[in-house]
Amino acid sequence: MTEKLSAAEAVEQLFQLYADDVYRYAVSVLGKPAEAEDVVQEAFIRVLKSWDGFRNESSAKTWLWTIVRNCIQDQHRKRYRRKEFLTGEGVLLDAAAHATDESVMELEDTLSQLSDSYRQVVSLRLIQDMSTEDTAKVLGWTTAKVRTTLHRAVHALRNVMQPEGAVAGARAGKEREPYGV
Amino acid sequence: MESKDVQERLTSMTSNISLPTDRKAAIWNNIQKEIAVYERQNSKRRQKTIWYRSLAFTAAAACVAAIMVAVYDRPDTPTTPHFPSPTTAQGKPATIMMFQGQSSSWQGRLSEVSQDAKEVDTLDLNYIGPSIGTPLTVDCVTSSADGSQMTATGQLKDGKVRIQFSQPVQSSGMYDQAHVLVTLKWGGHKDDMPLVFNAAYQTK
């Protein structure tokens, strides 16, 4: 997108190109399809409203992902407020209410044991296959922080994904190479 | 499990995840509604911007025009008038001993109006005025050395301010003198307010 499109055209093109990726990213971080759908809608509406301010300093994709990340943070806040309102004790009553899809549930089972920052970096670097630099831009981190966090996240994921016996072996055993950073 | 395996496992997990078609269509539908609202607002905003810009442009043009009128249409500020070689009406030289002026008032002293003539009834002052604008009126007020009032009339003629005393000024002694206050009024200045230059002359 070298030529500046109108906001409506930009939204249409970005939606066609990245709607599924945005959804996947949102699902992998939030774990709930319904919230992920809200993020998709909200993100593209924000693209529409802030397109005039986009200065091509980064790629449109990176810019979009920054918006998506902000939407996800807003979802986290909403979720926290809802949790406070419903239970007052921090118990999420509607947890996994929308997670009916098997793939989503499997992903959520895997990633749910990771912290939010691990989930974000894993989603961007491993699932979206984004570069370290772009990931750093989206998350507002340094590239060093991206690398370190990813390394730790992958280490944690290995433990989650490996069979129990292998985990014990892994804990006792050799030092693994970090993920290609 | 290797790092690459972790990535492959994640990729295979997510490969089946995509926005359901009906949900995608619904979301796009909502976004299109937002687009319509946005474009409507944007159009209004653009119209407003155009209107404000044209207003600002008109105002700026009016300001520039007003400044141009003020600068170029204004008569030149009168330069300092001076009376380089006053003479009596009889052609006798008169010397201005002291002649100093400010922008709003002039004072001068004529001495030796005439060494020969003991009486002076007419005084001519050569006038070099401002390049643009001529004195419209010449007002004179005189007083004699003893403080009594005399009358004098002044007029501008042939580049000279001619002051006509109602009666001859007697110059019988060193301190006999008449004080003449000449007021020249220029028209055509800003707001049509006349510029007033006063010149006071004393004859001895």
Task: Please estimate the helix content of chain A.
Answer: over 70%
Total count of strands of chain B: 10
**N-end to C-end Cα span of chain B:** 124 Å
Sketch the topology of chain A as an H/E string, one letter per element. HHHHHHHH
Low-confidence stretches of chain A: 88-100, 165-181
- Number of helix segments of chain A? 8
Computed structural class of chain A: mainly alpha
Describe the fold and architecture.
The complex is a heterodimer of chains A (181) and B (204). Helix content of chain A is 70%, strand content 0%. The longest helix of chain A is centred in the middle third of the chain and has 27 residues. With 204 residues, chain B is an alpha+beta fold. In chain B, a hairpin with a 2-residue loop joins β7 and β8. Chains A and B meet through α1, α2, α4, α5 and α7 of A and α1 and α2 of B.
Summarize the structure.
Chain A has 181 residues and is mostly helical.
Task: Jot down its keywords.
heterodimer, A: 181 residues, 8 helices, globular, B: 204 residues, alpha+beta, six-stranded mixed β-sheet, four-stranded antiparallel β-sheet, 34% strand
Write the layout of secondary structure elements.
The complex is a heterodimer of chains A (181) and B (204).
Chain A: H1 7-30, H2 33-50, H3 60-86, H4 102-111, H5 116-127, H6 132-139, H7 143-161, H8 164-172
Helix pairs in contact in A: 1-2, 1-3, 1-4, 1-5, 2-3, 3-6, 5-7, 6-7
Chain B: H1 3-15, H2 21-72, E1 87-88, E2 95-101, E3 106-111, E4 119-126, E5 135-144, E6 149-150, E7 152-157, E8 160-170, E9 178-186, E10 195-203
